[in-house]
Design brief:
By secondary structure, the protein is an alpha+beta fold. It is about 35% helix and about 15% strand. It has 11 helices and 11 strands. The protein has helices at about 5-10, 15-20, 25-35, 50-60, 65-70, 100-110, 115-130, 190-200, 205-210, 240-255, 260-275, and strands spanning about 70, 135-140, 150-155, 160, 175-180, 215, 235, 280-285, 300-305, 305-310, 315-320. Helix 2 packs across helix 3, helix 3 (about 25-35) packs parallel to helix 11 (about 260-275) and helix 4 packs antiparallel against helix 6. Residues about 1-40 have low confidence and may be disordered.
Length: about 325
């Protein structure tokens, strides 16, 4: 932790910081997938990845009575729910329902599904929004070590998953959510993303910016994958110049930097398999312009296999869904 640095200083990642944050292998995969390198590696978390290994340890510590409350069949409807403020189960992590060992294991899982900077940000966000990660809740779907499984962490402005690739061709194990309740952009932990995305907007020519700017945003949780052959809002990345595409790719890597290498690798493999970033559109929304400064606080990156909807006004709710439409 670095308490002497402001949130914006701590989390405003440039390319060099991205390489440090997500690790060399993820960055290499990202670059290869984006640029169409036929030698690019494809990867995804496995049941023996760091986070999933701890999920197995956590599951083994649960008593029968605990399992009756926080474990479910893999296909249970709760696993498909997506919301910016909900509890998948009633017991909170730091309640008497869990042992001290189990509380630490939950934190270890969360740490392992994030990059180091991403985990710091998660701790700051949960502390601000609900007094800490201990006020959040978890569930396990399926049985680790015996087929498909998924661990899920939920609470205010958070849905996070670890599943060892149990959900095929779905990055992060399915849709995830992050956010922050701070309404002042200069103090919001994720406003650095809006600043970076708006750098791309400012690099557009007048015709491009007119196409990219849309009056009204869709519902923030409207992130179902549409697949190929659909029309997406905003400006296609395929219509960017070479320099603009480089800026877009830098921005995309910055967005993914809070997450572990294996999840980033899988995202990039999915994007590559779907035709690359040229299939994606970028939209900025006039709605919700905080401070009327034309730094567009609501934006969306969307294509056949990728949806990243960021609602930055009045505070951050971000919904991400990356995968292959079934």
């Amino acid at each position: 932790m670095q308490p002497d640095r402001t949130p914006c200083e701590l989390f405003a990642l440039d390319r060099r910081e991205f390489l440090r944050a997500v690790g060399g292998s993820a960055a290499a995969v990202a670059a290869g997938a984006v640029l169409g390198n036929p030698g690019a590696v494809s990867a995804a978390p496995t049941p023996t990845s760091a986070a999933e290994t701890v999920v197995g340890e956590f599951y083994k510590t649960l008593t029968e009575s605990q399992r009756g409350v926080i474990t479910f069949p893999f296909e249970h409807e709760l696993r498909s729910r997506v919301n910016a403020n909900w509890h998948v189960t009633k017991p909170t992590i730091d309640s008497d329902f869990f042992t001290v060992e189990q509380r630490q294991l939950v934190r270890d899982i969360a740490r392992n599904v994030c990059s180091p900077d991403g985990y710091e940000r998660l701790l700051k966000q949960t502390e601000f929004d609900d007094g800490g990660i201990g006020a959040y809740s978890v569930a396990v779907f399926g049985t680790p070590g015996q087929g498909k499984f998924q661990w899920e962490l939920t609470g205010r402005h958070l849905t996070l998953r670890a599943d060892g690739d149990s959900v095929d061709k779905a990055a992060f194990g399915g849709p995830i959510v992050y956010g922050h309740g701070e309404e002042d952009p200069k103090d919001n932990l994720y406003h650095y993303q809006t600043k970076q995305v708006n750098e791309l907007y400012r690099a557009l020519d007048p015709k491009q910016s007119a196409q990219a700017l849309v009056e009204k945003a869709p519902k923030e949780d409207a992130v179902a994958l549409q697949g190929a052959g659909k029309k997406y809002p905003g400006l296609p990345v395929s219509e960017l110049t070479s320099d603009q595409k480089t800026l877009f790719e830098t921005t995309a890597r910055m967005l993914l930097a809070p997450y572990r290498t294996e999840d980033v690798d899988e995202v990039m493999a999915i994007i590559k398999a779907g035709g690359g970033w040229d299939q994606v559109c970028v939209a900025f929304y006039q709605q919700g312009d905080l401070n009327a400064d034309k730094t567009w606080d609501i934006w969306r990156v969307e294509g056949p296999s990728f949806v990243w909807h960021f609602r930055g006004a009045p505070h951050v709710h971000a919904y991400i869904n990356i995968g292959v439409k079934g």
